User: Which sequence fits this backbone?
């Protein structure tokens, strides 16, 4: 994902803009892995960036198993607010 794409992305649920960006892996000016987080404290939605693609989908189209695997893989770099309170899925019920 190119950083300039952030100018066009908003939260799929509450439409808040701009999304907070956390970069985990970057190559050739492309964000390979990272996290987009809604800035709205009540919304708490987060969206993974996997293989350079931002997965900005509403909850009903998300894959819980894939999302939780993403959270576990990057748990050391993901903010605690996302790990414990993020929507649509989080790791609050699991040992982190």
Assistant:
């Amino acid at each position: 994902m190119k950083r300039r794409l952030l100018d066009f992305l908003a939260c799929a649920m509450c439409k808040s803009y701009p999304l907070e960006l956390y970069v985990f892996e970057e190559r050739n000016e492309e964000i390979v892995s990272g996290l987009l987080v809604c800035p709205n404290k009540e919304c708490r939605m987060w969206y993974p960036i996997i293989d350079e693609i931002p997965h900005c989908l509403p909850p009903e189209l998300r894959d819980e198993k894939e999302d939780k695997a993403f959270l576990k893989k990057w748990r050391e770099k993901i903010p605690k607010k996302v790990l414990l309170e993020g929507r649509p899925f989080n790791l609050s019920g699991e040992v982190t």
